[in-house]
Write a structure and sequence with these properties.
Helices cover 29% and strands 19% of the residues. It is an alpha/beta fold. The protein binds flavin-adenine dinucleotide (FAD).
Length: 493
């Protein structure tokens, strides 16, 4: 070796500088979560020899910690069996609208057109789904039912222009255990195909030859090893929610939430490795954020109030959209105001880790205990109640199903970010890629031999306020599969 890069640098090294190679594979995959597993399976199915290296001692990543709800639609077997007539266009329109100006039309188009087929691909690998629907308003299904609403499809503004359909697919296992089962099945499928796996092996930097990625430097057993790739390296090392420096640089707003969710490997190393090869990053300020205030679904009958004593959202939308809007409120408190009838026993029940900010046998008592302009809040509640009686919400368009006047006695939960309320978050920005997973430079040029997938790339989910549960594992598995197939189809060096 001629060059000695800084031990913490991710800068690529040149193939010509490597005296001895420690292995040669067609495709090398960094990270064994959903994206890496699906990339490896697709590359192996294309006839490639594949290595996955993962810093952890086993497969899984954040995917195994997750519920592994998968946001899929456009006519999956489960949707059809449950009587839903979903279409590519309805799904495309919903994802375009919910991702707003940040939407990537090409990625959303490919995801929607490939969605039902991706469901079948997963089923063929052995991922089980029951043909039944979980009908309650919930974050995850507590049963083994296969389908549930996991976004804001039935809520304003989406319901106004797009026919709603449930697209959250839940694995056939009772309780919140989808992630471990999903990764167990994907791991077995990769191993059955002869994919080689090196655990406790950290990807450090790329190896390049005249601007083309031709290998990867890893560290295992306290030694650096040089691995040659004939067709490509796929970075699928998760996001950067556990990297405080990157969060402060790119997504400081997310740090107002209190619960980074993910695995300890979510340090952004895949993104940094790509960047040091000249890759562009995009949408780095965005993340999933949430204020998971239901279940119980009866809390949806409450109203969120900001520091001005005003409402700011239709409370029947997805909890992530509520979380995103909470972060956008003027500085000061945020409360969820409810009838005790809908809250239950506030003496013994606390939701969201949030403190009970106020209670009141009368509206006056409640108003006196809250730190917002009394008159404004009185007006907000009276106005809400008079419309709710008519099952109307002209200001925020909450659906009739969740409208009824707030009645005494009252209770208010303190949902102010930073005061203890649970606000989970993870990152949605990453390397700029094509649908194929090919990584792009700032100039929009492909870096030959380099691919990225899952949360290392910026994929379909791009916005906190438009997020739907299942879109991250859905996108990670789909984008991994695309990257594996593309690298697998590349000419061997
Ligand atoms: C509690 C929880 C619940 C969730 N529920 C859902 C849900 O139901 N549906 C949904 O869509 N999303 C959910 N998410 C989000 C979702 O799980 C993740 O965004 C998604 O699984 C990411 O997949 P991935 O393949 O990109 O990364 P991961 O699954 O995290 O895999 C990345 C792998 O890369 C490895 N790695 C990292 N750096 C290196 C390195 N330098 N060298 C080698 N290996 C490295 C890691 O060890 C890890 O194994 C949830 C997340 C959490 C934490």
């Amino acid at each position: 070796m001629k060059t000695e890069p800084h031990p913490h640098s991710h800068s690529p090294i040149t193939a010509a500088d490597i005296a001895q190679w420690h292995g040669r594979y067609d495709v090398i995959v960094v990270g064994f979560g959903a994206a890496g597993a699906c990339a490896a399976i697709a590359a192996a199915d294309a006839g490639c020899s594949v290595l996955i290296c993962d810093i952890a001692s086993g497969s899984g990543g954040s995917t195994a910690l997750s519920s592994a709800e998968l946001y899929l639609g456009a006519g999956t077997r489960v949707q059809k069996a449950c009587g839903y007539n979903d279409s590519v266009e309805a799904m495309y329109d919903y994802l375009m609208l919910s991702n707003g100006p940040q939407a990537d039309p090409a990625k959303i188009r490919a995801y929607c057109e490939g969605s039902a087929d991706h469901f079948d691909w997963l089923v063929d690998l052995g991922v089980p789904f029951n043909d039944s629907e979980f009908k309650a308003r919930a974050i995850v299904a507590t049963t083994d039912d296969g389908l549930l609403y996991t976004g804001s499809e039935k809520a304003w503004p989406y319901v106004e222009s797009i026919a709603p359909a449930p697209r959250g697919h839940n694995l056939a296992i009772k309780g919140d255990h989808g992630g471990p089962l999903f990764m167990k099945i994907l791991t077995a499928a990769a191993l059955q195909r002869g994919v080689e796996v090196h655990f406790e092996t950290r990807a450090l930097r790329l190896i390049e030859d005249s601007g083309e990625v031709v290998g990867l430097v890893v560290r295992s057993d306290m030694q650096e090893r040089y691995l040659r790739s004939n067709q490509g390296v796929i970075l699928s090392a998760g996001g950067f929610v556990m990297n405080r420096e990157m969060l402060a640089e790119y997504a400081p707003d997310l740090m107002r939430c209190n619960l980074p969710i993910g695995n300890t490997g979510d340090t952004g190393s895949g993104i940094l490795i790509g960047q040091s090869m000249g890759a562009a990053v995009t949408n780095m300020h965005e993340g999933f954020v949430s204020l998971p205030f239901y279940p119980p679904s009866s809390l949806t009958f409450g109203i969120f109030i900001n520091a001005h004593g005003k409402r700011f959202i239709n409370e029947d939308c997805y909890h992530g959209r509520v979380g995103a809007h909470v972060l956008q409120q003027p500085s000061g408190p945020v409360y969820l105001v409810l009838s005790v009838e809908d809250y239950g026993k506030y003496e013994t029940h606390s939701y969201l880790g949030a403190a009970v900010a106020a209670t009141g046998e009368t509206l006056d008592e409640l108003l006196a205990e809250l730190d917002v302009p009394e008159n404004q809040l009185r007006q907000t509640i009276e106005c809400y109640n008079s419309h709710a009686e008519q099952l109307a919400d002209p200001e925020f368009h909450k659906s009739g199903e969740w409208l009824k006047p707030l009645t005494a006695p009252f209770v208010a939960l303190d949902c102010t970010p930073g005061r203890g309320v649970n606000m989970p978050y993870f990152t949605l920005g990453g390397l700029d890629t094509r649908v194929s997973g090919e990584v792009l430079t700032e100039a929009g040029e492909i870096i030959p031999g380099l691919y990225a997938a899952g949360r290392t790339a910026c994929g379909v989910p791009r916005r906190a306020d438009g997020y739907a549960s299942g879109i991250s594992v859905g996108d990670a598995s789909f984008s991994g599969r695309m990257a594996g197939a593309a690298a697998g189809a590349r000419e061997k060096r």
